[in-house]
Structure formats: C-alpha cells, structure tokens
Write a structure and sequence with these properties.
The complex is a heterotrimer of chains A (635), B (109) and C (489).
Chain A lengths: L2 H4 L3 H15 L6 H26 L7 E11 L2 E9 L1 H24 L5 H23 L3 H19 L6 H32 L4 H8 L4 H18 L8 H4 L5 H10 L4 H8 L1 H5 L2 H23 L4 H21 L3 H28 L17 H15 L5 H16 L1 H26 L7 H6 L5 H16 L15 H16 L7 H28 L9 H6 L4 H48 L6 H22 L2
Antiparallel strand pairs in A: 1-2
Chain B lengths: L2 H21 L3 H29 L9 H32 L13
Helix pairs in contact in B: 1-2, 2-3
Chain C lengths: L1 H16 L5 H24 L8 E7 L4 E6 L2 H20 L8 H20 L3 H22 L4 H29 L7 H6 L6 H18 L8 H8 L2 H23 L4 H27 L4 H22 L2 H32 L10 H4 L1 H14 L6 H14 L7 H27 L15 H19 L2 H18 L4
Antiparallel strand pairs in C: 1-2
The chains are: A mainly alpha (635), B mainly alpha (109), C mainly alpha (489).
Chain lengths: 635, 109, 489
C-alpha cells in the first residue's frame, strides 16, 4: 500500500496536464470536453489524495518525503524538488482537490456563456491554480512552498483579471499581485535568513534545528514569514486586495479567495508551528493582528451592499480568527477552522454565484430580496452556510470557532471577549445578507423577476454537497468537554503539533468553564442571528449609509490612506526622478561635461585668428618662456 | 675687442628683426627683418669663429672655421629664400593688390 | 581549437558578408554563420572540461608579452553559449525587418559577435581589450547608420561614454602589466599580482576598472547612455547591446577585476554595492513612469544588472553562481522582451504604451508569450530568473564581505515589488482593456516570431524548473574566482 504515496507526484501533475491541454488546445476543444478534462483531472487527483489520506490517517504514520529531483544545488545549499506527505498536507490535499473539484463542476455551468476559447482559458487557469496550491502544500521545503505560494498569486492575478477587457478588473488583479509581493518579499527574506542560519530550507532540518536557535533569530524569521502570511491570507496591513479581488468570476472567489489560496498563510504557519511556538513575541503579534483583522473586517462587512463584498470581508474576518487560533497556539483549531471555513465559505460564494447568475449579473443586495421562492435549493444551502459561519451548533463553524475561542480564553480572556464580539458581528451581517437577499419582497426589475430560476444541476450539486459538509463537517472535532476522544481531528494532527503542544503549558481546561464559554458564544451568536433576521427581513436597509455607517461603508478609508502614504509618494518620487533628477542632474552632469568641452574649445579657437603675425608672436613668447625657464628655473 | 660687444650687437639686431616681424604688416619689411635676424646670427657665428681661432691657433690649423662655413650656408639659404619669398610677395600683390600680411588670414578657416 | 572557431566563424562570416551585395542573401548568410557558431558552442559544452581543445595559445605580440591566448571555462561557456544562442534568435526574430545596405548591417552584427566571443574567451589582458573594442565599434556604426531619429546624438553619447570607460580600463591594464613579474599580459601573471599591489594603488585601480565596467553594465550613475541608445538603435542591435553586451561589464568584474584586485574589491565593495542598490531602486521607479516601451525595458534592465553586480560584491558561492546563471537568463529574457517590442513597433509604428491597448484580444499568442517573458522578468518561481535572483539575494544576505548584508538585501528587495509594478502596468496597458483605433486592426504574429518566442519561453521554463546543468557548469569557475577573491589583504 505504501506505493500509493510514491504516486504523490501525480496529484499536482494531473492538474498541470489539464492546464497544458486546456491552455494549448483552447481553440480546438469543445466546451464540454474542456469541462470534462478540467474537472476530471481534479477528480483523479482527489481520488489519489483520498487513497493517500487513508494511508496517512493510520496511527503511527511517519511523514514521507518523496524527492523528485535536485532543484537548486549550490555549495552547501541543497534544495530538492521534494514533496512531503504527512497528516497536515494530506488534509489540505483533500480540501483543495475536494472543494476544487466541486468548484470545477460548478464552473462548467457558471462559465458556460463564455466563448469556448475563453472557457478553456478559464479552466486552464483554474487547473494551474490547483497545481500551484498543491505544490504549496506538498512542498517539503520552503522553496517549493514558495513556488506554489507565488504560483497561486499568479493564478489569482490571472483569474481576477479574467475579463481583461475591463480595466478595473485589471487594476484589482494588479493590486492583488503587488500587495502580495510585499508579503512575498517578507517570505523570501525569511528563507534567506533560514539559509544563512540553518544552511537549509528543508522543513525537517529547519524545525529540528529551531530548538537550538536564539529567540531573536526565530522571532525575526517568524515575523517575516508572518508578513508573507498577511499578504496571502489578507490580514492587516495587507488585506485590502481581497475585497477587490471579487472582480473575478464567482467560482474563482469561492475557490481561491475563500476556500484555498487565502488559507496558505495559515497552512504555512501551521507547518512551521514549532518556530512560532518558540517565539512568543511573534505569537502575540499573530494573535493581535488576527483579532484586529477579524473585528475590522467584520465592521466593514456590516455596511457593504455588494453580495460578494460582504462575503469577502467575512472571509477576511474568518481568516483573522484562524490567525488568532495560530497566535494562541490552537494550531489544530486553526486548521479545523480552515477546513470548515472551506466548506461553508465556498458554499456561500457558490450560492452567491447562483444568485448572481439568476439575477443576470446583479450583485447589489438592495436590488434583490424575496429570492427564497425562486431559488429554493440555493436558499436552503445558503441558510445552512450562514448558520455554520455564525457558529450555531451543531453546524460545523460552531466547533471550529469555539475551539479557537476557548484556546484564546485560556491565553487571555480579553481575546475571548473581543472574539465573541466579532462573532456577534459575524452572525449579524451574515443574516443581514441572508435576509436582504432571500426574504422580503423582490426589489429588482420585472425583467429580472421574469428570468429568475433555480440554477441547473451542475450548480446545485456542489451546493448540496458543500451544504452537507458544512453541517456535519464539525463532527470531526467535537470538544473533549462533550465526549472523551471525540476530537478526531486533533488526534489525527497530533504528530504535526506534538512538539508545540509540549511547549505550550497544558491548558487548564476546566470542563464547566469550557461549557460556559460555549454557552456564552452561542447565546451571543444567536442574538446576532435573530436581530439580523428580524431587522432586515421586512425592511431592508436600502438607504446609503450616513455618519459612522458611511465610514464603515467606505471601509474605514483604508484604501485612501494607503493611497496617500504609499502610492502617491512613490509616484511623486518616480516622477521627480524621471522628469527632474534623471534629466537635469545625472544627464545634466554628463551633458554638462560635453558642453564644457564645447565652450572651452570655442574660447580657445579664438587664438587661431589666421593672422600669421599672431602665430609668430605666440611662437616668440613661447621661446622667451623657454629661455627664461632654462635660465632661471632649471638651475 | 671682447666678444661681448659682438654678442650685444647681434642680440640687438636679432631683437630689432623680431620686433619688425611682429609689428609690421608690410610683407617686404617683414622679409627684410627676417634677413636682419639671419644676418645677426651670421655676425655672431663669425665673431665666435674668430674667437675660437685665436684661442686654439697653435693646436688646430683650422680651428673655428666650421662657423664660417655655416655662415655661407645661411647666406645661400637666405638667397634662396629671397628668390622664393619675393616671388610669393609678387604673387600676393597680384592677387590682393597689397602686400599687407593681415589680408592673408585664410589659415583660420 | 573550439574557442578559436567561436571567434573566427563570425569574423569570417562578417567579413565576407560585406561583399554579398544582395541584402536577402546576406541575411541568410549571417543566419547560417551564427547557427554554425551555435553548433560549435554546443559542441564546446560536451567536451570534457580540461580537454586541450578548449584552450588555445598562439603567438601575437611577443615583444609586449601578449599572446593570443583564448580558453573556455565555466563562466566563458555560459556567456559564449548565450552569445551563440542569441544571434540566431535575433536574426530569426527580426527576419522581416528591412534594412538598407542590409549586407553591411548583418556583417557588422557578426563582427560584433566575433568581438563579444573574444571578450568572453580572452586569457590575455591586451587581447581582452582588443576584443572589447572590436565588439563595440560595429555597434557604433549600427546605431549611427540604422538607428532612429536621434541616432547621431545617441550614438555620440554612447561612444563617448564607452570610450571613456575603455580608456580608463586601458590605463588600468597597462599599470597592472607594468607591475607583473614577467611583463606579460597573460591572465596568470595578472592573477599572480593579487595581493602584491599596495592598498593605496588598489583603490584607484579598482575605480578605474570598476567605472569602465560600470559604464558598460550600466551602474547608477553611469547609466544615462543606455535608455537613449536602446531607444535609438535598431532593435536587433538593442538586443545585442542589452542581451549580451551589458554582460561584458559583469564578466569584466568577475574575470579581470575582482580576482586581480581582491583587496580593492574588498575595501570598496560596500560603496559599489550601495551604488548598485541605489541604481536598482532608482531605475525601477523611473521605469514605472516610462511611456516608451523601449525605455521601460531599458530601465528595467538597469535594475536587474544592479542586482547582479551587487551579488558579485557579496562574494559568496551562492551569489556568484546566481550571477552566472542570471547573466544567461537575463540575456534570454530581455531579448524576448525586445522581440515583443519590435513586433509591436513594426505593426503599429509606435512604442508608446499610452497609445496601445487591448492587444490580448487581437494577438492572443503574442499576449501569452509576452506575459510569460514578463513574468520571468519579475522573477516568478519556475521561470529562469527566479533561480538566479533567489541565489543572488540569498548570497547577498549571507555575505561575509560586508557588514551591511541585511540592509543591502532588504533595500534591494524593494525592487522585487517595484518590478512587479512596472511590468504589470505595462502588460495591462498594452494587452488588456479595450482596443482603440490603432490596435483595432492588429494581426497575430507570424510563425517565425512565434517559434522564436516559444523557444525563448521553453528556455525560460527549462532553466527555471531544472537549473542543475547550468549550475554545474559554473561551479568550478566560481570556486576559482572565490579562492582568489578571498585573499583579501
């Protein structure tokens, strides 16, 4: 059975093959063939991943590193193109290929109106994305991870700007890429530091040497890595690209900007958990930034009217929770939340896509309403996902969020209080969204109403599957407070986080406290749900926001702030360099030398008067000077 | 007579010649001044020749004669110069109706 | 014998090229000559490393202690391969460009190739200088005869700049020659000088040679000839200039400066590095503001060259191997970019970014190929430039030659972000958006251009995924250079 792990290379190679086929023959393939190839390769990858998972989940499984070939081999530095199969990567493989497959299926219908050439291009990008994401999670060292890391960024760029005729989309794509680059630089410098410090970037070597490294170095490396994570996983200060990234097709938002790519940062930190655990300062930073992002994004989401924007900010906010989990040492909780979030957030986005599809491209929730009766399947699945994200038991989000909050409480009760407040906001804005969209009366045009219809099976099938997962997905992590050894996921991931858990002092998990905490968060979330539901089901908030609401609607003016402190000064500096410094100073000096020579020669030329007498005079003067030199100076 | 007097006379003649060349514009006068300079050199050569001859009279029969041969050379060159130079001046006069050298400033072009 | 062939084939090809009156046959003739050179170069790669066929030492000017010594080592192999590969690519890519007096044009191109080969092969300082000039002189003519509107001014500036550099270098070489033990120009005697020149002299000698090479690369603030020259030269010449000729500067430092004047390099390395970094950021910022495609690529090239030079002064195994592989990569990538620029210019008669737009709809093949080349330009992983840049940055970070390694790395890495800014800006404005009146009638590219771009893209990806062979070629050269550079005082 061990040989299935040796087939690990097939998992990323299949999507790559799909990318190549769809990309190169995009003009010749029919749409259905494209769809079959695009989804099929992911399905096969999923099946292989599942077989691998079955292997990995057996107790006592030791991580396997499959080295394919030497990538960079310079001096003492040896980076091989190697994949690492262990509990963490196997879990992510399942999420990526599983959710990815559903979204591919969904896309075959959602993107069907595109020309076949662009349809194929879309699937090529999507396959390339899955390939990159798989490289990211499979890499056995930081460089392979970085290859995937940049690869997903590239695919995100390509897919956000998929409709390239619209320059605004292009701007959003560019913004995403460039903001991610800030993070990438952090990641890269961290790897240079690791190379310098450990002489290697291979996970096993780096992590084993981390114990004997000074806290200062570890803090530096982990902070830089975290900077990388803030870019990819949209945290303060690099989160503003994610809402703009909603310009891409909706399935892309579901796959990349909700379920998989944005969790890359969490994966990376979970992967290098030991380094983070050994540097408490970084952990605090991670927790604080995560929490701050969770709250900030949640407040913004309160006042957004674009269905995808609300979901985007809720994604940012949920990612914040995951970072909070990482920061307080609840690595399992964070990974757990990644998993449940992948289910319900993909579902929400796909549901939103179904709504947008039915509405003929309309995304403003103020023009929707009452869609319940037109889109029953979408409505019910969306509702389930809303319960899941709001943290209502027994939906999946409850378990994962609760685990993070419980750990946060153990670390610092303030984290818990703020986190619960964020949960309140989450429940509220999600049900504001739900109520405004599906309840009440329809507020769109007649024409739109006429066209309202439930989406085809290729769209509803993924919705149903994801809805089931969103409901039951939490049962892999039932808290110990309810039943002994019920937390399957924790035991599964135990080997990955064992060392970190040893360092974190044993949680004083008082069963009654834990139950109390749970009760509090459930009550708070329910308040948010009920308030949101009742308030917006009848009279949705259609007016433009005023006062403080306007600040929220304008996203706290963060984009404007960045514009003022980064973009504009840089632009001004570039203009100054281009127009003044380069032309007047540098080129000025160069040309000045030329001009000086010209001027000098023009002056000297005057001596050449053409008068023979003048020449003779100069000659005589010269001779006299020579005489004088000879007589007076030489001696 | 001490050699000094000859030297002073010769230098004076030479300087007069130089000044003449530098200050006058008439080609013929310049030409004459050039001759004056040549002749001042001749004078000097002859004077030194005599001096050496007197000093070395017992040892070398022909001591100091080289200088006098040079004088002849100079006179020959000067004569050649006169013939060519005067011809140039005549041509110049034909072309410009003047013997003013300042007309001849084409060198600057 | 191989190094001699590498020089002689283009030389003879060029000289005979002058006499082929028909422009089209001259073009084909030079293409054939360049392909033969490529074959020889590839054969050179397969020959065993210490084989005698890679060295040649003939009599040249025995009275001066100079001989016609040429040889191929790892560094030379990388660069001669680049030269040999670039010329056929350039000839095929610009196959449809029309030149008046085409025979002279192609002949001069080949002469320049011969000169370049000589530079990369010479094992004798005087020979090196000779070929250095031989490579440049044809370029002066190429720019001034076949260039754009302001070609005379641009050529003049280029000429004066590079000539100043050459003369400084000559002075330096002569000084070193006079101090060699056996009054010889051979590279061995020069390397023997290492550590024997007084520190005070090393300073000014370092700057003489460094400025000569810095002008060629170019390094801030000696760079202003470059955008003008690139803009005004015919594109084929620009490709030679930016793809290969700028590498002469780096090569010069690697072979003739750092190992000979190791103390001077060590003392002044920080200053030179600072110049490199200033240049990187400065050029990147200016590139953001460029509207002319050629100038944009020119400034981006300045930024990339700055990084390579910086890595040399880092004096680490990783960094130097990165430089060597990156010299090759940069050559390939920038030629790819120029091909795209040339295609755009030929079709629309403009290089202004603001006048273009929406080309992705009309020429998807061009757009895809350009995007890949451009991504290599921003050093995305799995493209060749990533390997080079990663190694170089890593080398700078772990450098023991400077106290400021961390500062240098962080400052230089700003250019990683800026390169994304200007490259994506360019892609977006040229290829995305809607078409305008000018680009409405755009056609997709011809087969020969497509093939060449595909070749480039394949090279980009192969080196990006499997750089090992390239890295293996350069390893020994790097060891040799490092062993000489680490003498310090």
């Amino acid at each position: 059975m061990n040989n299935i792990i040796n087939l690990i290379w097939l998992v990323p190679v299949l999507p790559l093959a799909g990318f190549l086929i769809n990309g190169l023959f995009r003009k010749r393939l029919s749409k259905s063939l494209t769809g079959i190839i695009g989804s099929g390769v992911i399905l096969i990858s999923f099946i292989i991943s599942f077989l691998i998972f079955l292997q990995v989940k057996q107790p006592g499984f030791e991580p396997v590193v499959v080295a394919l070939f030497d990538f960079i081999n310079v001096g003492k530095l040896n980076i091989s193109f190697a994949f690492q199969v262990d509990q963490l990567s196997a879990l992510f493989l399942l999420i990526i290929t599983g959710v990815g497959f559903l979204i591919h299926v969904y896309s075959t219908s959602y993107m069907h109106e595109e020309e076949s050439q662009h349809f194929a291009r879309y699937f090529a990008y999507l396959n390339l994305f899955v390939f990159s994401m798989l490289l990211l999670v499979l890499g056995a060292n930081f460089i392979i991870m970085f290859i995937g890391w940049e690869g997903v960024g590239l695919c995100s760029y390509l897919l956000i700007g998929f409709w390239f005729k619209n320059l605004n989309y292009g701007d959003a794509a560019k913004k995403a890429f460039i903001m991610n680059r800030f993070g990438d630089v952090g990641f890269l410098i961290a790897t240079f530091w690791m190379i310098n410090q450990f002489g290697s970037v291979t996970f096993s070597e780096v992590f084993s040497k981390a114990h004997d490294t000074s806290t200062f170095v570890l803090t530096g490396i982990t902070l830089l890595l975290f900077l990388g994570a803030t870019g990819k996983s949209a945290q303060i200060p690099l989160y503003t690209w994610l809402p703009d990234a909603m310009a891409g097709p909706t399935p892309v938002s579901a796959l990349i900007h909700a379920a998989t790519m944005v969790t890359a940062g969490i994966y990376m930190i979970a992967r290098s958990n030991i380094m983070f655990t050994l540097s408490p300062i970084t952990q605090t930073v991670v927790a604080v930034i995560g929490l701050a992002t969770a709250i900030l994004a949640a407040t913004i989401a309160l006042k957004q009217n674009d269905i995808k924007k609300v979901l985007a900010y809720s994604t940012v906010s949920q990612l914040g929770y995951m970072f909070l989990g990482l920061g307080v040492g609840a690595y399992t909780g964070a990974v757990f939340h990644v998993m449940t979030h992948a289910f319900f957030k993909a579902l929400l986005f796909l549901g939103a896509g179904s709504v947008i599809h039915a509405m003929g491209g309309e995304q403003d929730i103020r023009k929707m309403g009452g869609l319940k009766k037109y889109l029953p399947i979408t409505q019910i699945t969306f509702l389930l996902a809303c319960f899941a994200i709001a943290g209502i038991p027994p939906f999946s989000g409850f378990f994962s969020k609760d685990e993070i909050l419980a750990n946060a409480f153990a670390k610092n009760p303030v984290y818990y209080i703020i986190g619960v407040f964020g949960a309140l906001l989450t429940a509220f804005y999600m049900f504001r969204l739900y109520a405004t969209t599906f309840l009440g009366k329809f507020r769109g045009t007649h024409e739109q109403e006429h066209h309202l219809h439930e989406s085809p099976a290729a769209i509803t099938f993924p919705l149903i599957v994801l809805a089931i997962l969103s409901v039951i997905g939490g049962f892999v992590g039932i808290p110990e407070a309810f039943a002994k050894n019920a937390h399957v996921l924790e035991h599964y991931l135990e080997p990955i986080f064992a060392e970190s858990n040893k360092i974190h002092e044993a949680q004083p998990s008082n069963q009654s406290t834990e139950l109390l905490l749970m009760a509090v968060s459930v009550v708070v979330a329910s308040i948010g749900v009920i308030y949101g539901w009742t308030r917006f089901s009848k009279n949705p908030d259609l007016e433009d926001a005023t006062g403080f609401g306007k600040v929220l609607a304008n996203k706290w003016y963060v984009d404007e702030f960045y514009n003022a402190i980064v973009v504009k000064p840089l632009n001004a500096l570039a203009t100054f360099f281009n127009n003044i410094f380069e032309k007047s100073i540098i080129d000025g000096i160069v040309n000045g030398v030329g001009k000086g020579v010209k001027y000098g020669s023009r002056q000297i030329r005057l001596i050449q008067s053409g008068q023979v007498g003048g020449y003779v005079l100069l000659m005589v003067i010269g001779m006299v000077i020579l005489f004088l030199v000879e007589i007076f100076i030489k001696k | 007579m001490p050699i000094n007097y000859y030297i002073f006379l010769s230098v004076a003649l030479f300087c007069i010649g130089v000044t003449g060349v530098l200050t006058r514009r008439n080609a013929i006068i310049i030409f004459m001044c050039v001759e004056l300079m040549l002749n001042s050199v001749n004078l000097l050569l002859v004077a030194f020749s005599k001096m050496h001859h007197l000093a070395l009279i017992g040892k070398h029969a022909d001591a100091g004669t080289n200088a006098q041969i040079f004088v002849f050379f100079i006179m020959v060159v000067a004569a050649a110069e006169v013939s060519v130079g005067l011809a140039i001046i005549v041509m110049m006069y034909r072309n410009t109706h003047s013997v003013d050298v300042n007309f001849l400033n084409r060198l600057k072009h | 014998m191989i190094p001699v062939l590498l020089i002689v084939i283009p030389l003879i090809g060029g000289l005979t090229g002058f006499f082929i009156k028909n422009g089209k046959s001259a073009r084909d003739w030079s293409l054939i000559a360049s392909l033969v050179t490529l074959v020889v170069s590839v054969v050179g790669l397969t020959v065993e490393k210490n084989s005698a066929s890679l060295q040649f030492d003939g009599e040249w000017l025995p009275a001066l202690g100079s001989s016609f010594a040429v040889g191929l080592d790892g560094l030379g192999q990388i660069l001669t391969l680049l030269t040999a590969l670039s010329f056929p690519i350039i000839f095929i890519a610009t196959y449809r460009d029309e030149y008046k007096n085409a025979n002279n044009f192609y002949a001069l191109m080949l002469l320049s190739q011969a000169g370049l080969m000589g530079v990369f092969l010479a094992n004798d300082a005087l020979l090196f200088y000779f070929f250095w000039e031989l490579a440049l002189i044809p370029v002066y003519f190429l720019c001034s005869q076949w260039g754009g509107e302001k070609r005379i001014q641009a050529t003049f500036k280029f000429f004066v700049y590079t000539f100043v550099g050459s003369l400084l270098m000559l002075v330096g070489i002569i000084y070193l020659y006079l101090h060699t033990a056996d009054h010889s120009f051979s590279i061995k005697s020069f390397y023997d000088l290492n550590g024997r020149i007084p520190v005070a002299d090393q300073t000014w000698l370092f700057w003489l040679l460094f400025i000569a090479f810095a002008i060629k690369m170019p390094i801030f603030p000696f760079h202003t000839w470059q955008p003008d020259t690139y803009e005004q030269s015919p594109t084929a010449t620009t490709m030679v200039l930016s793809g290969i000729m700028v590498k002469m500067g780096l090569f010069g430092i690697l072979r003739w400066l750092a190992p000979v004047l190791s103390t001077g390099t060590w003392v002044w390395g920080d200053t030179a590095s600072a110049l490199c970094i200033i240049g990187m950021i400065y050029a990147s910022l200016i590139a953001i503001k460029q509207d002319d495609l050629k100038r944009l690529v020119a400034y981006s090239s300045i930024a990339h060259m700055g990084l390579m030079c910086l890595a040399i002064f880092g004096t680490t195994q990783t960094g130097l191997q990165g430089v060597m592989i990156q010299m090759f990569n940069h050559g390939i990538n920038i030629i790819g970019l120029w091909i795209v620029v040339d295609l755009i210019e030929r079709q629309f008669h403009t290089r202004k970014i603001s006048e273009l737009g929406g080309l992705a709809q009309k020429s998807p093949a061009l757009a895809i190929l350009l995007v890949i080349v451009a991504l290599a330009n921003v050093a995305l992983p799995l493209t060749n430039a990533f390997v080079g840049e990663f190694l170089m940055f890593s080398g700078v970070f772990s450098s023991a030659a400077t106290k400021y390694n961390v500062v240098f790395t962080v400052a230089a890495s700003i250019s990683i972000i800026l390169s994304a800014v200007y490259t994506l800006n360019m892609i977006q404005k040229v290829f995305f958006g809607n078409t305008n009146a000018l680009t409405e009638k755009a056609k997709d590219i011809y087969l020969n251009e497509k093939i060449i771009l595909v070749v480039i893209v394949i090279a980009i990806i192969i080196v990006g995924v499997y750089p090992k062979p390239m890295l293996d070629i350069t390893r020994e050269s790097v060891d040799a250079i490092l062993s000489k550079m680490n003498l310090k005082q």
